[in-house]
């Protein structure tokens, strides 16, 4: 049975091909579909398209459906196309003709859009909370290990002194930038498309400001065509935020894999958090961070997938848009699981002391020496040459103490400022 049934049923193969995995994915939209319908019918009553009694009966029935959803008992039956159809069928089978009135002034096109906006808002907030947890962990670790030096590399060659305070703090501040993307994606999702109907509005005097208030959207997508165009753009903005966070996290995972390698040995984890080999008895592998890196790298590709799926589509609704769900729905949970796993693992990280005392890191300190000479009055280029020649003829001896006092440097991490910056951004997400 189809909402659009006109006396014939489509071929089974056609149905399977066009519905695909959508029924399954739509289960995640169910609670938002009911929320959207509740707002829509309140509005219909306010403009005289439903009586107060009809509204009451419909709201009660929708409330019961909402409870079924919250209990995890909601299903989309075989032969029913999607969540929107299932909810409407449940209403009409319970209430008869009153149920059939709910769809006035609405199309599944704006219905799925409003569901997606509400869904994305919640998903982006839950990503935001996971980012915040990891951020706090990183800042705490940065403070805890701020006095532990490690080599800094350029070109993957020993370069200048760095520290675990800098390293942990760097990922924290980088997450603050990603959070800006998340807020932008949230703001794009937080606009009401309801009332755009099939994509060109309706001859009913729909009160779109009212549904905006009822669904707690920050504003309307005013232009009905723009509202429809936001299908794909909303997901794309979210995907860009997800990709941005994933790229930060993937980078962190890569560092950990490298620092865990015996050639570095800078960090380690309890045995129970590592994995073994079936042949080499000594192995304690960083599989967690490898899987994290792989998952995050895959997540960085979803903006591209969305761009390709939506490239050059004609204006207005096209069924291709349904496939966006396959890309974006699994991505949010995947990212949250990576963020939470990173937070869990970092609770147990051990950091090696006195790494830079090893003679292989002697040359980390050449610039410190050049700068000391400059402060005693030697012009920079001469000081550079002097230390360079000492390195060349093997007479260079490092002085291993470090005094970096400017903002954001080893001895002045500014973690308090970074935390302030982060929470000012996170506040906009209302997490
Ligand atoms: N499952 C569809 C989607 O996600 C719902 C909208 C169907 N609209 C239509 N005109 N066939 O896009």
Keywords:
431 residues; mainly alpha; two-stranded antiparallel ribbon; two-stranded parallel sheet; 15 helices; 6 strands; binds arginine
Give an overview in words.
- The protein has 431 residues and is mostly helical.
- The chain is 58% helix and 5% strand.
- It contains 15 helices and six strands.
- It has helices spanning 12-19, 22-26, 30-46, 52-70, 83-95, 108-144, 164-189, 208-214, 224-260, 287-299, 302-310, 324-347, 366-375, 380-393, 415-427, and strands at 149-154, 157-163, 191-192, 219-220, 267-268, 350-351.
- It has a two-stranded antiparallel sheet with strand order 1-2. Strands 3-4 form a two-stranded parallel ribbon. The protein has a two-stranded antiparallel sheet with strand order 5-6.
- The longest helix has 37 residues, at 108-144.
- The protein starts with 11 loop residues before the first helix and ends with a helix.
- The structure holds arginine (ARG).
- Arginine is lined by residues 22, 82, 108-109, 112, 317, 319, 321-322.
Q: What portion of the residues fall into strands of 2 or more residues?
A: under 5%
Q: Name the hetero compounds present.
A: arginine
Radius of gyration: 29 Å
Segments where pLDDT lies below 50 for 5+ residues?
A: none
Distance between the termini: 41 Å
Number of strands: 6
Q: Largest beta sheet: what is the strand line-up?
A: 1-2
The overall pLDDT, averaged over residues, is: 95
Largest sheet: 2 strands, antiparallel
Overall form:
elongated
Structural class: mainly alpha
Instruction: Note the total helix count.
Output: 15
SSE arrangement, N to C: HHHHHHEEHEHEHEHHHEHHH
Residue share in helices? 55-70%
